[in-house]
Amino acid sequence: MVGIVIVSHSGKIAGGIKDLIEQLTQGRVRVEVAAGAVDGSLGTDATAITAAIQRADTGEGVAVLMDLGSAVLSAETALDLLPLEARKRALLCDAPLVEGAVAAGVEASLGSDLAAVRQAAEMSRSLTKLGG
To answer: What is the predicted pLDDT for the residue at 131?
Structure first.
C-alpha cells in the first residue's frame, strides 16, 4: 500500500492531519509526519523528511504533501538524500495540504497505485475553489 508523508512547519497541524487520515482509513494507511524544527519551533528539516519517507515506504511508493514554500524546498532536498531506489518511489504532490492528504489517504486505502494516489491529492485542488 502507498504511504503518505505530511510535511508541515507545525507539528500540531501535521499531527491533526495524520489523525484525520488514520480515522478515515481505519489505520490501513501508513502515515508519517515530518513537521517543525528539531527544537520544537516552527520549521522544516530535510533530514527529518527523508527519515519519514523511509518509514512510510512499504515498497509501493510514498506520496509527500507539503504546506508552504520552504517545506517544498526541504522536501525536494529530502528526495536528493534518499537512495536512488527509494527516490524513484517517492512523489511530491502539488496539492492543498489538508484536502490533498485526505484524498491521498483515502485513495491509498483503496489499494490504488502511487500515480492514482498523487492524482487524487492533486485533483483535490479543484474541490477547494469557492463557487465551483
So the answer is: 52
Residue 93: exposure state from Cβ atoms within 10 A (0-12, 13-18, ≥19)? buried
Angle formed by the axes of helices 46-56 and 69-81, nearest 10°? 60
**What is residue 117's predicted lDDT score, i.e. its pLDDT?**
98
Are 58 and 3 within 8 A, CB to CB? yes
121 touches 97 (CB < 8 A):
no
pLDDT beneath 70, residues of the chain:
127-132
Active site residue 19: no
Cβ contacts of residue 93 below 8 Å, gap of 6+? 63, 64, 65, 66, 100, 104, 118, 121, 122
Strand partners, 63: 4, 91
Domains defined along the chain, listed by start: 3-127 (3.40.50.510)
88: its cell numbers: 524513484
From 9, 18, 30, 118, active-site residue: 9
